[in-house]
Amino acid sequence: MSIQAHDLAGKPGKGPAFLAVGDSALAVQFGESVDAETNRRVIALAESLTDLPLDGVLECVPTYRSLLVSYDPARLRGAALEAALAQRVAQLQLGDEAARRWRVPVVYGGEVGLDLEDLAREKELTPDELIELHSAAEFRVYMIGFAPGFAYLGGLPEALHTPRLPKPRMSIPAGAIGIGGQQGSINSVTGPSGWRFIGWTPWRAFDPARAEPFLFAAGDRLSFVPVSAVEGAKIEAAIAAGEMLPEAVQ
């Protein structure tokens, strides 16, 4: 099923597309491009369903440009869900985002940031210039996915856009700060990856022992703050001992 909804002004053909995903999920696709405005609509619909739940809806998963809505077909039919979601979309209010902002400490280079120097040479920059460019940017968390708490980031400076590696590495640690194409990332768990990695944060993007296991959420804004290896190790130890928790600046 692929039915085009009406847009917010009631005109056909310009609203989101509703796409069946199996027999128990519906994707609400707001556009074809990756941009902040489209992502804001995705998040606004997700928040609407959190604030005013629909009976039968089990879970909502925001992505770059669509919202995946899982439902129980024994309690809610797909056509009824589509109609209800179309009504919600028509009522969306996109005011100022109440986004959290983070200043994430990063140890650039070292054992985890093993691509820093090669990437700097490729971009005809010094490592310090690359770090300055990366840490001066403001990033948007577009979505959480791939692994628990893995943050996909938009806002990577164009000068740092770089294809992923042709052959993934088999083990990249949690906290690795990556670049893949036009995206940035914060690795949440140890595992294979083809991203280019330029640093490491002692913050835990995923910690099942926390009340909120995922540190970041779609719509959050963040910037990276360079710290020394010694300072990074101290932060890691303090977090592990329960003496420090990452906190948003607002």
CATH class of the largest domain: Mainly Beta
**Residue runs with pLDDT of under 50 for 5 or more positions:** 1-13
Task: Kindly state the number of beta strands.
Answer: 14
Q: What is the CATH topology of the largest domain?
A: Cyclophilin
* Number of domain modules: 2
The H-and-E topology, N to C, reads as: EEEHEEHEHHEEEEEEEEH
Largest sheet, strands/sense/barrel: 7 strands, mixed, barrel
In terms of DSSP E residues, the strand content is 25-35%
Distance between the first and last residues' Cα: 42 Å
Q: Average pLDDT across residues?
A: 91
Class per helix and strand makeup = alpha+beta
Shape: globular
The CATH superfamily of the largest domain is identified as Cyclophilin-like
Rg over C-alpha atoms, rounded to the nearest angstrom: 20 Å
List keywords for this structure.
single chain, 250 residues, alpha+beta, Gyrase A, domain 2, Cyclophilin, 7-stranded mixed barrel, 5-stranded antiparallel sheet, 5 helices, 14 strands
Please tell me about this protein's structure.
With 250 residues, this protein is α+β, with helices and mostly antiparallel strands. The protein has 2 domains: 2-90, Gyrase A, domain 2 (2-Layer Sandwich); 101-240, Cyclophilin (Beta Barrel), CATH 2.40.100.10. It has 5 helices and 14 strands. The protein has helices at 36-51, 78-90, 116-122, 127-136, 229-240; strands at residues 2-6, 12-20, 25-29, 57-62, 66-71, 101-108, 139-144, 151-154, 169-172, 176-180, 183-186, 191-193, 196-200, 221-226. It has a 7-stranded mixed barrel. It has a 5-stranded antiparallel sheet with strand order 1-2-3-5-4. Strands 9-12 form a two-stranded antiparallel sheet. The longest helix has 16 residues, at 36-51. It is globular, with a radius of gyration of 20 Å.
